[in-house]
Amino acid sequence: MFDSHAHLQDAKIKTDLDQVLKRARDAGVERITCIGYDLTSSEEALLIARKHQGVYATVGVHPHDAKTFNPEVRDKLKALARDPKVVAIGEIGLDYFRDLSPREKQKESFIEQILLAREIGKPIVIHDRDANQDVMDTIKKYKAGRNGGIMHCYSGSLPLALEAVKNGFYISFAGPLTYKNARKSHEVVVKIPMDRLLVETDCPYLTPEPLRGRINEPANVRYTVEKMAALRNQHPDEIGYLTERNACKVYRIKD
Ligand code: NI
Fold it and tell me: Is 0.90 surpassed by the pTM of this model?
């Protein structure tokens, strides 16, 4: 299995990282992408990726932290992004639910990082919360899927997922897929092409059932795999294998 989105640099995980990675391997999770959300966490993601086999990094500024984005940060991200262990720019996007940065600043930092990804030729990881239409308009206007990309922790509608797929994106599901109220996501899982599906934990957040309430970690991605398998009427091993292959493809991991 491949946990395509984890925050291993988070204090809740970092302090116990060797054990967390061991439990992941024991559960059959052989690859993990550690996702940056601001400059410091991006630097940390790369350090962790360099140190551990099967761990990769992304660098980028999250919409919550868009107010920290500036030309100097952009240049530093660009330098980090040239490292072969950096497999994408992210997570980037728009969050109109929490609005922790002004929307104009979110848009500016989203667009700047899309252009950065295009310049260095790497895919992007998108965070979208309550901003579906603006995210889709931006993706199309700036051809953001040119090098591929991921809609992380997808919670939108089926038509929008299909539109994202058409524009070069993969659709990734996290722990909420296992929650009872996830009927809309269940439909998306069944109806989008298997070769565009990914799984993730977004740990330490979004712990799947039956462990809800605990700190999440990559080993738990198997609960999302099992849920996806049940929905698609396929064997969990097959879903694990196929989603790992898809993640390797979008992140361009060859080994
Ligand atoms: Ni995340």
Answer: yes
Give the contacts of 31 (CB within 8 A, at least 6 positions apart).
1, 2, 3, 54, 55, 56, 244, 247, 248, 253
Ligand 1 centroid to Cα of residue 119, in Å, is 23
Residue 20's alpha-carbon distances to 25, 178, 210, 229, 252, in angstroms, are 9, 22, 18, 24, 25
Q: Out of 3.40.50.620, 3.20.20.140, 1.10.3720.10, 3.40.50.300, which CATH number does the structure's domain 2-251 have?
A: 3.20.20.140
What's the 6 CA to ligand 1 centre distance in angstroms? 7
Rounded to the nearest angstrom, the distance between the alpha carbon of 2 and the centre of ligand 1 is: 15
Contact 60, 42 (CB under 8 A): yes
Q: What is the pLDDT of residues 43-60, one digit of tens each?
A: 999 999 999 999 999 999
